[in-house]
Structure to design on (204 residues):
């Protein structure tokens, strides 16, 4: 059984897709053992509680020094004894110590086809604003391994989404979430839980 910790900062719709995937059998041999947020008002925490999943909130704002926050964050993660850490709309930088302690065991969902529209400053609506500004006909989402860069780890899964004429950033974000993020994140977790992504995880 793959023990999964999910980290959220906002609405938690990607978390919900994972919860639903476990309930409907799309994700096998997997258990969400903890949902962690940096934001006490994140609705993702409510989604976890509604499904009987243990939660924790640890915010950088509660600590004078960022390294103290990282220490507290890592302690909560370690206590959950995860096999996989999933960043599902998590807006906090992962400390290098956590990446080194959980090599190839942290994945992130990014709302573009990496290497487009990613890296520092590209998150949430900003990603879709950039795609619309560039005029791409297709965008999409990517699940990748988290390394010490920003959106630079090995790509595991991607799914393209058509950009429609007149799209607003909000309309495009909704389509990318519905048609790509909520599909490939559960798919990636299921594949990891069942040993189907090992080669890509090793970057082979
Ligand atoms: C969304 O912008 C999504 O594209 C990105 O994180 C944000 C929040 O998603 N992955 P969620 O509803 O909290 O899962």
């Amino acid at each position: 059984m793959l023990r999964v910790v999910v980290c959220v900062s906002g609405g938690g719709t990607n978390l919900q897709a994972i919860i639903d995937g476990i309930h409907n059998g799309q994700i096998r041999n997997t258990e969400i053992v903890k949902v962690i947020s940096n934001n006490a008002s994140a609705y993702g925490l409510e989604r976890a509680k509604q499904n009987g999943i243990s939660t924790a909130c640890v915010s950088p704002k509660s600590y004078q020094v960022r390294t103290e926050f990282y220490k507290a964050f890592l302690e909560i993660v370690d206590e959950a004894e995860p096999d996989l850490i999933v960043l599902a709309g998590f807006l906090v930088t992962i400390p290098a110590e956590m990446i080194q302690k959980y090599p190839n065991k942290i994945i992130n969902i990014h709302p573009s086809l990496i290497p487009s529209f990613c890296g520092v400053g590209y998150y949430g609506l900003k990603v879709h604003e950039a795609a619309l500004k560039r005029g791409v006909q297709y965008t999409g989402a990517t699940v990748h391994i988290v390394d010490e860069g920003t959106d630079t780890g090995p790509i595991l899964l991607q799914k393209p989404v058509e950009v429609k004429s007149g799209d607003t950033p909000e309309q495009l974000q909704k389509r990318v979430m519905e048609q790509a993020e909520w599909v490939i994140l559960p798919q990636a977790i299921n594949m990891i839980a069942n040993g189907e992504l090992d080669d890509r995880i090793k970057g082979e």
